[in-house]
Structures are given as C-alpha cells and as structure tokens.
Write a structure and sequence with these properties.
The protein is of the alpha+beta class and 525 residues long. It has 3 domains: 220 residues, Rossmann fold (3-Layer(aba) Sandwich); 72 residues, no CATH class; 78 residues, Archaeosine Trna-guanine Transglycosylase, Chain: A, domain 4 (Roll). The strands form 4 sheets. Strands 5, 6, 7, 8, 9, 10, 11, 12, 13 and 16 form a 10-stranded mixed beta sheet that branches. It has a 6-stranded mixed beta sheet with strand order 20-24-23-22-19-21. Helix 8 runs parallel beside helix 10. The relative contact order is 0.11.
Length: 525
Amino acid sequence: MSIRLPEPFVARMRVLLGDEFDDWLASYGAPRRYGLRVNTLKTDGESYRMRSPLSAGLKPVPWAEAGYYYSEEDRPGKHPHYHAGLYYIQEPSAMAPAELLDVRPGHRVLDLCAAPGGKSTQIAAKLKGQGLLVANDNARERTKALARNLELAGVRNAVVLNEEPERLVPVFRAFFDRILVDAPCSGEGMFRKDESMIADWLRHPAAHWTSMQREILRHAAEMLAPGGVLVYSTCTFSPEENEERIAELLAERPDFEVVPVPPAHGWAPGRPDWVSLEGIDRRHVDAVAGTVRLWPHRIEGEGHYAAVLRRKVEAGRESVAVNPRPGGPDDESAGTPGRPRLKTRQYAGRRGNGGKPGQRGKARGYIANVSDADPVDAWRSFQEELLPGLGGLPGRLDAVGEKLYAQPAGVPDLSGLSVVRHGWLLGEARRGRFAPSQALAMGLAAEEAARRVEYGADEPEALKYLKGETLPLEPERLTLRPGEDGRLPDAAGYALVCIDGYPVGWGKLRDGLLINERAPGWRWM
C-alpha cells in the first residue's frame, strides 16, 4: 500500500470493520476508478457511449444513469467534447446521492452545499429544463466554479446563491420538493483519490464537522415541503458524521422518516450498532439501518454515505404537487399545500423591435441600437435577429444592471440574499446593443441559431477556436437559418460556433473572418 494512512484512523477502522478490515485496507493499494457522467441535457448517454472518442470505451456505473467509468489514460478533460459540456468528470460513488434523490421534471430542488457543481448538473439533467434548481454554497470563491459548471452543462433553470443555510430558511420555508445536503465532512472516503485530504483530516477530524452538519441538516429540514425528500450524504466513514446525524434529526423531527435504500450494487446498509449517542430513542437508532454505505473494497468507487429522508404529510393535507409540464400553471395562480403562495414579476411576451408598435427592425445582419436603459429591448432585438428558433422562455426576464437573466418560473423574492446567478445569464446591454453571454451559447441547441459555424472535434480549427484564435471563415462551414418571413440572414454579425454540432461559444463574421468571441475565462489554456 503506497498511501500512508494516519494511525488513529486505521486503528478506529480496525475496530469498526472487524473481519472486513483487511479487505478494506487492501483497497488502498488498488488503482482508483475514474468516472464521467454524460450530460443528458445535450445528448443521450448510451448513444454517446457507443460513439465515444475515448480510446478504451466507457463502462456503465451500475448505480448512475448516464454514468460511466473511463481509463485514466483517456484524459477526457482534454477533449473538445468536455468544452462543449457533453459530460462532467465525476468520481463514480459521488454520483449516488443525486440518483437517490429521485428528481423528476417539474420539481423544485435545492442543492444546499453545491460547489463545485457536479451533483447540481446531475440534478439539472434530471429536471430536463422543467422546474427549478437552487444551487447554493456558502463559500464565495467556490460559487465561481459552481456557476461555471452549470453554464458549461447548458442549464437554463438554475439560480445560484452564496448564503449560509439559516439565511435561506425565511425565503424558502417548506418550499422544495427535493433537497440534497452533500455535507462538508472529514473526507475519509476520499483518501485514495486525494491524499491531500489526509493532512486536512489531521487538522480537522470528525469532531470538527459534526456541529456544522447538525445545523445544516436542521435548516434544510425547514425548507423541505411535506411529502418531499431530502438526501443527506458525506464522503466519510465516521459514524459521528453519518448515522448519528440521522438518528439525531429523527429524534428532533418526528415529521421525518428514513426511506430505506436497498443495498444493491454492493452497497452496505447503515450501522445502528455504531451509534453511541445518549438519550436517543432506540427506534430512531434502528432506523439508520435503512441508510447506505459505499465501501471501496465492495464497489468500484470511493467511500460514501447516504440517507434518504421523507417529510411526512400531516393528516388532512395533500402531498407535494408536481407540475411536470413545461409552461404549466405556477404558484401565482394556485398555492400548493404546504408551500407559500408566490408573487413573481413577469415581463410581457414582446417580440422583435423591443415590443414597440409601428417600428421596423434594422436591416438583417444588424442588431438594432435600442435604448441604453432597457436591456430587455436589446435582448428582444437580438433574439429576433439571431435566435429565431429559441421561442419564448418560461419564467421572467430579470435585468440586473446591464446584465439580463431568464429567471425560472416560481422563484420567490431574493432581496437581501447574495445572488451569484439570477437564472440563465443571457448577456449584457452595452451602449444599446446586446452582447450575448457564454452561458447563453452553452444553453442553446445548434438549430436555434440563425447563423452557426461548424467544426469537427478532430479538426485543428476546433482547438484553435477553443484557445481564442480568430480564424478565416470557409463558406462551407457557415449554416444560415431562415427567419419567420423565410428570408435568410446576412452572413455577417454574431454566429453560434459549434463542435460536432454542439455549441461552444460565439464568433463574429466580418470580412471573411470568424472573430473569436469565446469568453476569455473559458479559453483552453
């Protein structure tokens, strides 16, 4: 075994595991497994597996929809498909909590400790563009990666917050159908994957984390609607951070119950016999047998723990209603039992010309120079010209300074909260013209754009574009889509740039060149 594990950690695991200890210890000498999850917002998992450019092919992760093992030598983060958001590189065991959450289209979902965003993108794929995802993290710096990963995945229906859990409770009390608490922890299950976590463990062992986890769980419970499901997960073995936290919550909240997880895929049940809390009713301790542990010597993955909890529905009240239809009725028209009725602002569905009667747009190929004070008008002109296939957006348009967001339906008033992303960032109004964002490009389908430029992933031009280079435009690479009047747009102005048919950013067509408009922070270094 090449990894040097802390002696106190090894001694405790010897006591806990008994006969399984030797197998567990031997797993640290085995190669770690690598995983990625295909982004089903953009492509089908199985069809992508069959045509994957990775040399050794992909092997399914048994517990994760669209999750696959890959070989270390493949380095999928260096392939253009990664930069098109076609997959997210994720440790295989880390895919389990979001699968257990049982997210369906139309749900309102909170990922409470969301950075860097792997589980948030997994949840978003299950929502299929319907419903609402609130992705929160209390570390400001980490929300940068969170927002970027959601944008890379092309997520349209997410809000990103940077708040402590207790500050969310007054806004979102009894609001969510699903909540994921992937709690900060001592990280014992990740020692094989990342040896630097051993040093962190020596500084901050399990006792450092338990009070934090207790408070996070308490606040999360307040935000779950009756009938809703909460998944609590960690990447540690410590019973104090796992079974004991669940038994304690059950004792405090009689309206919560464990939903037993079948020990499939080599998973093991939770261990009531490892709970040493005093004053907890035995039935709450016994209930943690329905939680689940993922052990590295039993599965092809690292160590994890997960518990599925349901908030009971009070007698005489209905369970949470789920509206799976895009554009269906929202809470403005009818309250949902157990959840507050919401008030939301809604812009009228103006199209083209800023919704101003009697005006005609400028010549094709030119984005109308509209009022500096109204980014909504600038967006409408841009959409009419460049995105005839996009159609109406659910929810509302929300202008924050020069930035314009498409905010998902049903978002309550976020005043007083630290908001990183108010929704899908469409772009900015600059001097009366609309500048589309990288997030807008990543959330589009190629066919929604009036002008697009295509490259193949194996062509040198694809890499040059991703690096930020300006390229000569070969006419055969340009595809023009007719507008509603049947006329083709001019071959000048903004164009959506695609690799193998998937958007990766913007370019401007000018004088036979594709001027690179891929956001500087997104360029392949």
